[in-house]
Amino acid sequence: QRRAEIASVLQKREQCESEIAESESSVERFSHERNIVSEQTAGLLAQKREQDGAIQQRDGILTEHRQRLNEVQNRKGMLEVELAKKLSKLENLCNRIEERYQIALDQVETENVPLNSLPEGEASTEAEPRPDLEIFDVNTDWDAVSERVQALQKKMDSMGPVNLVAIEEYEETEERYQFLTQQYDDLIKAKDELMTVINRINTQTREMFIQTFNQIRENFQSMFTEIFDGGMADLKLHDDEDVLESGIDIVARPPGKKLQSISLLSGGEQTMTAVSLLFAIYQVRPSPFCVLDELDAPLDESNINRFIMILERFLNHSQFIIITHNKRTISIADILYGVTMQERGVSRIVSVKFNREENKIAGPESSGRLANSKATLQSSRVSDDGLDLEANRSAKAILKE
After folding, report:
1. Structural contact between residues 243 and 210, judged by C-beta atoms closer than 8 angstroms
2. How far apart are the C-alpha atoms of 223 and 399, rounded to whole Å?
3. How far is it, in rounded angstroms, from Cα 394 to Cα 289?
4. Which of 26, 111, 224, 349 pairs as cysteine with 233 (C-beta 3.0–4.6 A)?
5. Separation of alpha carbons 316 and 190, rounded Å
6. What are the tens digits of pLDDT across the range 258-305?
7. Domains of the chain: which residue ranges?
């Protein structure tokens, strides 16, 4: 039954460790996803800026071309109107001349002879200007008009063809911009959700850490005072604002000494301070088993007694496996395991089991103390396949040869 309970406890412990590992994996996965989202967000922002710049540039070019096209079309319309007016005036003038002089202007143009080509001595007649002809502006310089029209035509040709696809390209770019904007909004929303989860996890972790730290701190202070019969010890955080990244200082003041860091204490005092911290943590999160490897090596006789006194307090809660050379520590063990080498290169494990019979004497002074203790030693050898550990929680000592 004890083994079944131990197996159940171990199974629960493995389950807890699995849940802790799963939680840590989730935190790492969230952190990794947050980094990926941040990188994607930065890439999309860069693409968005490039697209915005391209759109603005194309909008500027399209606007400029439209302005130039409007100017040319307006100028062309004005010239066409002016040309139509001139042609109308010319046609009216020709009709009036033909009606007045009953001649065909085409024949007059072909028979026109310059006056400066007449023979010398012949009289030349110079027509006097007539007010009725000046009204119709017969002196219009049509060559200048033609040159002006040709210049405007060349200017239009130099502008190149109008990009009629620019509107479609603008619509495609606008659609792409809307798509990227939606993607960006989705990424921002996902980032906010991830940050909310991370903040919630950090808040819960911070609360759990502060609660556990305060419990360990109180236990450490009381345990240190009990072990040293006085004095004072404390745990201090480097940064109270960011407790998850903060370091922890251990300060101790044994009786009769000043408050100082544990690095300035003697070896025995450092060990007893470590024992105080160890059992302070152990009180918050006890475990079924505890292995101590020569923890009592630097302790003197008085400190050994204090160490054993503290150790006996926890024997009802956990099973201790102690590797030690100290006889005083060995004396409280229920089972001893020793390793010997009777043959060269061959190690054997030998166990010694103590069966204690305890009687209590009633009385105010002797209440709770051992009045009579009888120990029976049973020597047996244990195979190399494993140790014959009892299921009851008690102290076990392993002797080194």
Report:
1. yes
2. 28
3. 10
4. 224
5. 51
6. 777 777 788 888 888 888 998 899 888 888 888 988 888 888 888 888
7. 26-108+131-163, 288-401
